[in-house]
Amino acid sequence: MFTTKIKGCLILLMLVMGAAALAGCVSNAPSITFRIEKGNMTVQDSVYARYADGTVTQAVYQGTAPNQTHDDYLMNNASNKTIVSGFVTNGTVSWVPDNIQNDFCRCYVIYTHNTAKLYNDWGKPTIPAVSAEIQSVSANAANAQHVDVTFAVYGAQHQFVDGLTEIFAHTNNPDVKFEINNSPSIAYESGYSKSASGGLVTFTLAPDPLNTSASPLEIANLDSFQISLKSGFKDIPINHEPTAISVSDKTISTGKGLTLHGNDLASDTDVGDQLRIDSASAQTPGIVNLTVSNGQLSIMPQSAGSTTITAYVYDTYSASARVTFNVIVEASAISRPNSSSDTGGGPVTSEQAADQAEAQADISSTISAEVELKNQIRVTIPAGAVSAKGTIKVALVPENQAPAADGKQSLTATFELTSTTGRTFAKPVELTFTYDAEHANKGQRGAVYYFNEQQQRWIFIGGTQNSDGTVTAYVNHFAKFAVFVYEPKVFSDLEGHWAAPYTERLIGMKVISGYPDHTFRPEEKVTRAQFAKMFVDALGLPMSDSAITFADDSNIPVWAKSAVVAAVKAGYIHGYEENGAKLFKPDQTITRAEMAVLIAKALQTDVALTNSKTIRFKDETDIPGWAKPSVTAAALAGILNGFEDGTFRSSNVATRAEAVAMIYKLLEAMHI
Hints:
Elements: E1 3-6, E2 9-12, E3 14-16, E4 31-37, E5 46-51, E6 56-64, E7 70-76, E8 83-89, E9 94-95, E10 100-101, E11 109-110, E12 131-139, E13 147-154, E14 166-171, E15 176-182, E16 185-189, E17 191-195, E18 200-207, E19 227-231, E20 234-236, E21 243-244, E22 250-252, E23 258-260, H1 262-265, E24 266-267, E25 276-282, E26 288-293, E27 296-301, E28 305-314, E29 320-329, E30 348-349, E31 358-363, E32 369-373, E33 377-381, E34 390-396, E35 415-419, E36 424-434, E37 445-452, E38 457-462, E39 464-465, E40 470-477, E41 480-486, H2 500-508, H3 528-539, H4 558-569, E42 576-578, E43 581-583, H5 592-603, H6 628-636, H7 656-669
Parallel strand pairs: 3-4, 22-29, 30-32
Antiparallel strand pairs: 1-2, 4-7, 5-6, 5-8, 6-7, 8-9, 10-11, 12-13, 13-18, 14-17, 14-19, 15-16, 15-18, 19-20, 21-24, 23-27, 25-28, 26-27, 28-29, 31-34, 32-33, 33-36, 34-35, 35-41, 36-40, 37-38, 37-41, 39-40, 42-43
């Protein structure tokens, strides 16, 4: 252990517990030893020193320190370059371990993990830094000619990075320097490294003190500072949020509707940023039908009138802009032809007397069809929904033959939809019901349900309320349908959230629910017990009170036990084998890879056949071998789409939003 004078302060160069060895001081010492407490470094972790120009040098492992409680890592600085920090990295995240300063000399930085633990896991982040945004720019409190710039650092889902993520800032402007509190003096360098706290990191910039002609820094000229950021070895782009542009009223005069792209609603100054529309909603129901797919917004007319559309546009780094505009649907956009031949591309419609109990129409893969019965139900089948030529029929189910309502209050009769072409559709089919809203109490409305013959129960579909008192839903299979009273739930934290379109159906099915404070908490992590309950309830597996064979069955919550047993009996869950005992680990969070395995099993996909397929994710090498076929199967089924950067992130813990979206898509794929 030795000391050296550096830039006005004394620094201890044999540092205990950490890699941020020079936080608070800069150094040009010929060598530095990092002493790190045993049990923290893994085989993936490496220690580096950071120079002011942004380059790094690895510290080499030297062996166990004399006291046997720490490991030493030596970094040689033969060129005597200026070192501004140290950090630990595993190639995915880079961080500055937790620390306190020594009380007897403010210039010493001593790492004492045992006595002052500021963060769990010694500050190691779980969220890799992907982008940064300028949070604030202000004059420095101590020197008005200096400028404080605060950056918000984000992960791929536009969430703050956690732990003590290392952020290195550098300027290419020779007249600008970073101010470094080198107590009791101040140092100035072209680059400086700090750790983000709560996702935020602040750097102080100053005119070059060696340049007497340097002008005071001006906040308005921030771009002239030419700042770039790194975390570990990765460049961190400084992202400018997309800006909503003024959108004129859109008029729809034909049945083709309108398609909008991200650039139609927002602009972005960042070169190469791709704008995508993530979600949209209409203020007035029944005027238009909105579909967001592949970053585009499709607006299809439903009835004449106008409504306000609110859409959210995201950039490559998940920063968003909220855009509001009006859409006017003219009467010409909703006119319906009366008839067509069965060989052309126009719709085929049916007619029937008022007392008829059924109606039918011809259909094929090349034509659309529309069937309406007793002014109570209208079925619209698009071209391409069926693969063969045949007929489609909608029939009124006699009251004495209709399935029991299971305590639900019906608002329509039961109708059965059948066809000679098969039992499922390749494209969604539109069902529109007319019902008497006066039979629903305040806060209630009509929702479409279908009767599952295998499970012998009514299953919630939902639907959009139209201004003419009807409700429209989209289905991908034939069945018996009816409208029942439903009381929708409103959650304050789902407005504008990407998962909002998936939640209503699962809430209506009683698969999920919110919290007493009227929140849904979409970003909350999901445990294995919670996902098992959602999964079993959604699939309608028969519950069982049989004994659980897991060694930790006493840890399984009462509300989840029967669901866990059902999943085990159905072969979906097997648990872990550890030290001769079989464990379920109900409180352990579930990963995206684990969810993929359950989804593939539910699809009854021969995952062996997917081994010849190419996984469509950039990080496919990170996907565990036991999960790869299942991930591929779920991706091919359109259930798992990965992230915007093309990764799957198999080890990520699943959130409530992700779990809901996957289960929703699973039900669609299984025609439930």
